[in-house]
């Protein structure tokens, strides 16, 4: 992923000083695009770009232009259908300067005005400046992809300028107010406001889908989503934790890699990557799946202390104080640095599946299919503030791009149109979480995965890297945040008041980097259990007393659920945790054992 910064209407007589300031702020995004920097000034408008070269590394530097350079665009993203669009535009008389997949945006605008965004199949954030009628009559537009896979912020200067940036660190010091640029929207200077360009049926949560489950259609849609994301001119791999989602990504990539241009250039042996504490569930499962698929597998180990030492960098790069995001971002941040050191610039990852299919363990308690579906809608709509933010920013911190096929626009349409009755967890019918996805890839003749991997229980990334990771974070926070500090939390942090010492610790760090009120408001809040929304806590009365985003907070569901007493008394944290050990607490309740799917062993 690249980094963009646009400053529009930056009125000042000293244009040289303004240009220097834009360059200075753009450099705050250089980690996102270490391969090249570009800046175009047109009157009082500036478009800057920090490039991570994935497609056409030789000639695709940005900003990009139309034929006479009267339309200029800076883009962060990948346009997977660019070849088809390029062909259609060429037939209409357009010519291209580069082989960049993003150049089509400037020409589509010439052909269709601002109504072209839905024609793009990919993930993107862009700012486009139209000077065809002269600098003084110029206009601009900006847009963000459907789900918010790419990050984007918008702000306003006291001088009337509009600022748009991939990360808020490039505009927070200059804007009087700034906020998240909402996914699926475009901003037009002609109207001076935002409008939605992406309005699928599932956006109306009152409409409950009724399409019968078709496993073959679901499988084919996902295979297409993965194959699209094999479009690359640089070395790549897959993130492989050994869970269902990453394993399916790897399995499909391995099966289809041979016939792609990427295979001709980089070979048919797929690289896979996994991170975890010594002896963690993910390392073991990832190695097993890699052996089964025949990938060239790379394991990276870290200690609890390694993770704790990286927390400040993680918060700076992810720009959040959300507890579960920081927990999961830290091992991903550490792994991304290792991956980049191997010369790899792009990875494919499994984010989004749990939101589409109700894969989080708290979905076991959904009262009916209507509420199940509404919760999936809420989760998908919020992805840009959680897993999309983590996957993008934790990797982009080291100039690594993460692609997420589960959030392909066409695949989302297929997944969200299924009658949610099929997605419900039904032990009486042998259906565990994400059964519809598992069943779609349960091929007896040509297995994608071994059965026990295909039906492995959901493990959140922050848990799967090693259970003592979260316990170690809590212990570290408890040693840095006093009870007296907590008693005054509501006065120090009146918005999204932290309710745990871990949350307080992250909030302190965040506000050192981003003290503005606007920055604080970009982070979501509210209670959560096992990554639920606040609304879903109503599904089970005992959850309100066990609020923690870890999957182990799903009491009676997770096979290694927290003991309620241990959660209430942090003194019970195992001694090995403080030393950075990887001891794995396995406190199994009768209810958890009863909830285990057939064939899953329970360790005591």
Task: Calculate the terminal CA-CA distance, rounded to whole Å.
Answer: 43 Å
CATH topology of the largest domain: Rossmann fold
- The share of residues in extended strands comes to 5-15%
Q: Which class do the helix and strand fractions yield?
A: alpha+beta
Largest sheet: 6 strands, antiparallel
Cα Rg:
24 Å
Total number of beta strands: 17
CATH class of the largest domain: Alpha Beta
Poorly predicted parts: 564-604
Relative helix content: 25-40%
Using the 3D structure, state the CATH architecture of the largest domain.
3-Layer(aba) Sandwich
**CATH H level, superfamily name of the largest domain:** HUPs
Give the overall average pLDDT: 89
Secondary structure topology:
Blueprint: E1 3-8, H1 15-26, E2 36-42, E3 45-51, E4 64-65, E5 71-79, H2 82-91, H3 104-112, E6 122-130, E7 139-144, E8 153-156, E9 162-165, E10 177-180, E11 185-188, E12 193-196, H4 215-228, E13 236-239, H5 244-257, H6 261-266, E14 271-276, H7 281-293, E15 296-301, H8 304-318, H9 323-341, E16 346-348, H10 353-357, H11 369-381, H12 387-396, E17 401-403, H13 409-416, H14 435-440, H15 451-454, H16 461-464, H17 467-480, H18 483-487, H19 489-492, H20 501-513, H21 517-521, H22 564-568, H23 575-578, H24 590-595
Parallel strand pairs: 13-14, 13-16, 14-15, 16-17
Antiparallel strand pairs: 1-3, 1-9, 2-3, 4-5, 5-6, 6-7, 7-11, 8-9, 8-10, 11-12
Helix pairs in contact: 2-3, 4-13, 5-7, 8-9, 8-17, 8-20, 9-12, 17-20
